[in-house]
């Protein structure tokens, strides 16, 4: 009996074809958790691109492992998987270039107000749109402050430092791991001094609500905040209040509630650019992530633990579980 790999969403077609050489590949028929709980019953490996509830794993008796198609594991029930001796892997850094380039694009849009220029040219004409260039600024010589200097933060820092001649400051728990062209500062100092504050950190107890009324109030007149982390890193109500004062601008790819509610005040604010959690999605990044995810899946199907492991503490129990599953099914 061939192994079954369940995908919450489709992945790269070429990598799907490669996976089909080794297993049956099924795509979940719905994102509804009850449906997923039913369809996971026969799965040997689950590849995750959309949220999975902890309760789903109660039905995953055959599951050898969970592969996160991406870096962030906040949509994976890691604690529940660990309790059930199920290894979890992910793809850290595979979309770092895509996200970094997205941030640069938003910095250019915000610094030149190009999104507003385009809109005003279409609605009010040539002359009206040219007025917006009065406040345009160059990136060269400006300061970008990065909170979360991991793979994405470092990719962004390289582009900003070497490509645009920007000063780069950053905050991370272990500043010794930052390149020498990034000046390590406190998180408050990032908010206080950066022309562009970029949130590229994981969502943790420390970072949840980090951008709030107090820290946003530290930002300089005319500064911008760009969020490519997780929506809950920003207190969205506080941000809306600060944006209404026209002191700062923002570019947001992630939100506390996704999809962004139709009645969100952010939808009508002229000083914020909105996108639908697409910063890390390019043809190239999806191919890289899919390739890594399939490699990890094949490791699991071969009775090996995938690398990297999100929950390495599960190692011995996971190997025992896989051996038990091998003899049971």
TrEMBL record:
Residue intervals of the D-isomer specific 2-hydroxyacid dehydrogenase catalytic domain: 5-311
Keywords: Oxidoreductase
Record bears the keyword Amino-acid biosynthesis: no
InterPro entries the UniProt entry points to: D-isomer_2-hydroxyacid_DH, D-isomer_2_OHA_DH_cat_dom, D-isomer_DH_NAD-bd, NAD(P)-bd_dom_sf
GO cellular component, one term: cytosol
An example Gene Ontology molecular-function term: glyoxylate reductase (NADPH) activity
Protein name: D-3-phosphoglycerate dehydrogenase
Species for this entry: Advenella incenata
Top-level taxonomy: Bacteria, Pseudomonadati, Pseudomonadota, Betaproteobacteria, Burkholderiales
């Amino acid at each position: 009996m061939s192994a079954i790999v369940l995908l919450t969403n489709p992945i790269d077609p070429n990598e799907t074809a490669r996976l089909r050489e080794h297993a049956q590949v099924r795509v979940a028929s719905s994102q509804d958790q009850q449906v997923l709980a039913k369809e996971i019953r026969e799965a040997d490996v689950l590849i995750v691109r959309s949220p999975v509830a902890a309760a789903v794993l109660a039905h995953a008796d055959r599951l050898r492992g969970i592969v996160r198609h991406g870096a962030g594991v906040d949509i994976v029930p890691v604690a529940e998987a660990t309790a059930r001796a199920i290894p979890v892997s992910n793809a850290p850094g595979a979309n770092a270039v895509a996200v970094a380039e997205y941030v640069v694009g938003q910095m250019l849009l915000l610094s030149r107000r190009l999104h507003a220029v385009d809109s005003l040219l279409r609605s009010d004409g040539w002359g009206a749109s040219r007025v917006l260039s009065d406040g345009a600024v160059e990136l060269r010589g400006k300061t970008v402050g990065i909170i979360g200097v991991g793979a994405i933060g470092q990719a962004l820092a390289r582009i900003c430092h070497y490509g645009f001649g920007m000063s780069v400051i950053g905050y991370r728990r272990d500043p010794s791991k930052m390149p020498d062209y990034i000046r390590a500062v406190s998180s408050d100092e990032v908010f206080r001094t950066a022309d562009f504050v970029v949130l590229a950190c994981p969502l943790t107890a420390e970072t949840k609500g980090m951008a709030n009324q107090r820290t946003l109030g530290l930002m300089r007149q005319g500064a911008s905040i760009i969020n490519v982390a997780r929506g809950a890193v920003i207190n969205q109500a506080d941000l809306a209040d600060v944006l209404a004062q026209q002191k700062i601008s923002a570019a947001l790819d992630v939100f506390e509630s996704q999809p962004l509610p139709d009645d969100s005040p952010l939808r009508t604010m002229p000083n914020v650019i909105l996108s639908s959690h697409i910063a890390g999605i390019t043809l190239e990044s999806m191919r890289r992530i899919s390739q890594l995810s399939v490699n990890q899946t094949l490791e699991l199907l071969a009775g090996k633990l995938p690398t990297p492991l999100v929950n390495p503490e599960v190692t011995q129990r996971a190997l025992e579980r896989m051996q038990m599953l091998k003899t049971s099914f």
